[in-house]
Structure formats: structure tokens, C-alpha cells
Design a protein that fits this description.
Elements (H helix, E strand, L loop, with lengths): L3 E2 L4 E3 L2 E3 L4 E2 L4 E3 L2 E3 L4 E2 L4 E4 L16 E3 L4 E2 L4 E3 L7 E3 L4 E2 L4 E2 L4 E2 L4 E2 L4 E2 L4 E2 L4 E2 L4 E2 L4 E2 L4 E2 L4 E2 L7 E4 L3 E4 L1 H6 L6 H10 L6 H14 L8
Parallel strand pairs: 1-4, 2-5, 3-6, 4-7, 5-8, 6-9, 7-10, 8-11, 9-12, 10-13, 11-14, 12-15, 13-16, 15-18, 16-19, 17-20, 18-21, 19-22, 20-23, 22-24
Antiparallel strand pairs: 24-25
Length: 226
């Protein structure tokens, strides 16, 4: 299977493409960049420009890599920036990144994440597996959005969000029941509810592993947690 690259797209530097990718009109890809298979990159997407960092706005990004996995949809107007402080800006597999999303320097976007239109994030954020970022959300630097959680439309997220949480500003934290059912956690829903609402550690080994990964990520974030 070959790649479908529109003739107006610009690909410059060390860019490695897998197969089955579609690169839309007027998109710009700068290396070092590695892209897997079966990704849809819509028109006017820019991948590989420098991160926006006020301390070092013109840093040397010639060896600063971005890696994008497989089966991702990246819609028009999205920008994905090179790392500035860490080793990589990375997007996993099966993500859906909608119109005009800002993926900042040093971001880690794990598998199955959904980012809806007009979301803006500060540098060094982590969106963990299955997270959902709703319309117009802003996420402060260093924040970690836990697995299968959701930040409600228009949120200004300034702290970490725990796994399976629904964060609604001014209303508190609720269980993200949609993700519990969608991703096959219905049989441990009561344990998830106890964890989210009462901070009770679950007995299920899989939930323990999910929470341990989140706790490890937030340990170096420097942010408090909702």
C-alpha cells in the first residue's frame, strides 16, 4: 500500500512515512518526523515547527523528533510542535485530533485520545489513554489528563485529572460513565465510582495498574490534582 500525498503538500527534512497515509493539500511536514500507517492528515496541517517557548523561542530543533503512530485522524488547521525540553513530542495510535487543535512542544498523546476543535494546550502536557478533551478546552503546562477521563467543554484545566473522571468547572468531579461503558469497564464500575468519588483504591488489578501509571506521570508534573 502506498501513501497518497497531495502535490501541494510540503515535506522537508528527515520524514519517515509508513504506508496507507493520506497527506492533504497545503499541509507542511518537517523532520525529524516518523509517521506510521493509515493516518489521515487533512489540509493545512503543520507538523514539525518549533515549540512556542518564551525562554527559548528560536531554539535549535533540527534534531528534535516527533513521532506519530498508526490510524490517527488529524484534521485541518492543527499544529504539532517539536519538543523543546524532553526527547520527543509523541502521538500514539487511533487518536482523533479535530479542527484547529494546538499540540505543544513535548506533549505526549497516548492511544485512543479524542481532542475536539479549538483545544489549546501548554507545553509538556500528557493526555493518557482514552482521554477526551471537549470543545474549546485549555490545558495548562505540565498537566496530566488521566486515562478515560474527560474535560468538559470550555474548561480551563490547571490541575491533573484522575482516571475515569469527568471534570466540570464549578461543579466538581463525576464518573465518566461513557468511557466506563465504551472501554469495557462496566464490570468494575462500582470500584471506579469509589475511586473517583471517595478516593478508595480499587481491588481490580487492571484498575490498580491504570492508577499506578497515572500516579507515576503526575509525580513529576508539579501540578495538583482535582
Amino acid at each position: 500500500m502506498t501513501n497518497k500525498i497531495h502535490p501541494t503538500a510540503i515535506i522537508e527534512g528527515n520524514v519517515e512515512l509508513g504506508s496507507g497515509n493520506e497527506i492533504g493539500p497545503y499541509s507542511v511536514l518537517y523532520g525529524p518526523l516518523k509517521i506510521g500507517d493509515n493516518n489521515l492528515i487533512s489540509p493545512n496541517v503543520v507538523i514539525g515547527t518549533l515549540g512556542q517557548d518564551t525562554r527559548n523561542p528560536r531554539y535549535d530543533g533540527s534534531n528534535s523528533p516527533i513521532e506519530i503512530g498508526n490510524n490517527n485522524i488529524i484534521r485541518e488547521g492543527t499544529a504539532i510542535h517539536k519538543p523543546c525540553y524532553k526527547d520527543i513530542t509523541k502521538i500514539g495510535n487511533n487518536t482523533y485530533i479535530m479542527h484547529s487543535v494546538h499540540i505543544p512542544h513535548d506533549a505526549i498523546i497516548e492511544d485512543d485520545v479524542v481532542i475536539t476543535p479549538m483545544v489549546a494546550m501548554g507545553g509538556i502536557v500528557t493526555l493518557m489513554q482514552g482521554a477526551n478533551i471537549a470543545l474549546g478546552v485549555t490545558v495548562q503546562q505540565y498537566c496530566v489528563i488521566g486515562q478515560y477521563s474527560i474535560a468538559a467543554m470550555g474548561s480551563a484545566v490547571t490541575r491533573n485529572i484522575r482516571p475515569f473522571c469527568k471534570y466540570i468547572p464549578g461543579k466538581g468531579i463525576f464518573v465518566n460513565d461513557y468511557a466506563v461503558n465504551k472501554y469495557g469497564f462496566a464490570d468494575v464500575a462500582e470500584q471506579i465510582e469509589d475511586y473517583v468519588l471517595r478516593n478508595v483504591s480499587p481491588q481490580d488489578a487492571n484498575l490498580q495498574q491504570i492508577i499506578a501509571r497515572f500516579d507515576a506521570a503526575v509525580a513529576t508534573s508539579g501540578r495538583q490534582t482535582y
